[in-house]
Amino acid sequence: MDCNITIFLYYAQYKFILIIFEFLKILKLIIMLKKILLFLVIVIISLNINAQEKIVIENNPDYEFQSDKNKTTQTVMVKKTKPVFQPIWSFGGNVGLSFWNGGANILVAPKAYYHFTPQIFTGVGLTYMYSKNSSYYNSDYYDYSSNSFGGSAMLGFRPTHFLQFTVEYEGLNTNYNGYYTSSYWNNALYLGASFVTGHVAFGFQFDVLYDSLKSPYGSAWTPVISFYF
């Protein structure tokens, strides 16, 4: 009887430690997101401050021999006005294709983007990913194929026309067939940075929720290529 109570107490302590660990992970993620949002707000405010310039108009500009001492100037304050930006929709998405000895990954992820300002936009989309691997050792244990399907939602910010930062959530349901068969759901939260040229952006993103046992990607760091039309 005492042995069962001791085992129960150890199990309760183990579950309590797991709960505390998950709580700390969520708290760390919330703090990271607050810092990112604060940075975006500061940059947006600084970019939207209207500049002013002074134009100096000299009296009698056509009088060639006017003395500098006799010249008077008038200062006119001219306020620059920016053209009104109309929110617009655009479309695009991500594609990926990779091969290795006996394996392949294919990614198709169309997206629709809504641009609030020239610097801020959001997007929603669908994601499909196919993975296959044939073992070099010719063993069923290493052979597998998987189909992952889900959706994503993201927020993007461009401080300049050639640089882009993104925060994106992606949820995927994966059907895995190999040494065993399984179906499970995986959550990912990506922080990304990309270089933009024309209608294409390419860079890297990092999954802060990466789970090597569930994620269809081989690493928390993944390259990304995006298209905008």
Provide a concise account of the structure shown:
By secondary structure, the chain is an alpha+beta fold.
Task: Describe this entry's structure for a reader.
The chain contains one helix and ten strands, in the order αββββββββββ. It has 229 residues and is an alpha+beta fold. It folds into two domains: 48 residues; 141 residues, Porin. The longest helix has 46 residues. It starts with a helix and ends with a strand.
Short key terms for the protein model shown above:
229 residues; alpha+beta; eight-stranded antiparallel barrel; 20% helix
Topology (elements, then pairings):
Layout: H1 2-47, E1 52-58, E2 73-79, E3 88-100, E4 103-115, E5 120-133, E6 144-160, E7 163-177, E8 181-197, E9 200-207, E10 221-228
Antiparallel strand pairs: 1-2, 3-4, 3-10, 4-5, 5-6, 6-7, 7-8, 8-9, 9-10
**Domain count:** 2
What is the class of the largest domain in the CATH system? Answer: Mainly Beta
Strand order of the largest sheet: 3-4-5-6-7-8-9-10
Low-confidence stretches: 50-58, 63-67
Which structural category do the helix and sheet elements fall into?
Answer: alpha+beta
Estimate the helix proportion, in percent: 10-25%
Total of DSSP H or I helical runs spanning 4+ residues: 1
Distance between the termini: 70 Å
